[in-house]
Amino acid sequence: MENVRDPREHVNEEPRDDLFDVAMGFGGFFGLLFVIFAVAVIIKFAIS
């Protein structure tokens, strides 16, 4: 049991910017929904 490490050390944890990741996720999802909305509006105007 000599090589047992303290699990609180978080040796394998990579430093990340969580707020930036969440902001990019929201921005990307908003962009995807906006593209879907724009295509739907174009199709609606093309039909009518």
Summary of the model, kept short:
Helix content is 62%, strand content 0%.
Task: Give a verbal description of the structure.
- This protein is 62% helix and 0% strand.
- It has one helix and no strands.
- The protein is mostly helical.
- The relative contact order is 0.07.
Question: What's the helix and strand layout?
Answer:
Blueprint lengths: L17 H30 L1
Rg for CA atoms: 23 Å
Let me know the number of strands. Answer: 0
Helix content: 55-70%
- Report the span from N to C terminus: 75 Å
Low-confidence stretches: none
What percent strand?
Answer: under 5%
Main sheet overview:
none
Q: Which class best fits the helix and strand makeup?
A: mainly alpha
The average pLDDT score comes to 88
Question: Helices and strands, in N-to-C order?
Answer: H
Number of helices: 1
Q: What would you call the shape?
A: rod-shaped
